[in-house]
Amino acid sequence: MAKRAVDVLGSDIATRALGVADPRTPKQWASGTRSVRGHQTLLRLRTVHLVIEELKSSHEVAAWFTLFNPDLGCRAALQVLDEEPFEESGGLVLQAALDFTASRRERKQPA
User: Fold this and answer.
1) pLDDT 10s digits, 30-53
2) Spatial contact of 55 and 48, defined as CB atoms under 8 Å apart
3) Which of 19, 73, 100, 110 is surrounded by the fewest CB atoms within 10 Å?
4) Residues with Cβ < 8 Å from 93, sequence gap 6 or more?
5) What rounded mean pLDDT belongs to the chain?
6) What is the C-alpha separation between 54 and 21, in angstroms, rounded?
7) How far apart (Å, rounded) are the C-alpha atoms in residues 17 and 23?
């Protein structure tokens, strides 16, 4: 999961999304030289992974995390993850990703 986060989001966005201070940490998780520690950290990694899987297109995912989102009160997903306790922000960000992909599917369906 950490490797996918770093590969798709890039080191800087992955570091912020995963809530760690040192940008080397997600890379170390990805390479297996460091273990993910703590239930909260693992939940955050899993949530970020679920968002990435939901959004699918890797070139859109990094942008989605950084652009303002009306479903998140016109804040970027990274901003919500930074500002709110993860117990609240994780669910909000995941729901916003689900809503985004649902609306995208609706737009693609023929009338």
Assistant:
1) 999 999 999 999 999 999 999 999
2) no
3) 110
4) 47, 51, 72, 77, 80, 81
5) 91
6) 26
7) 11
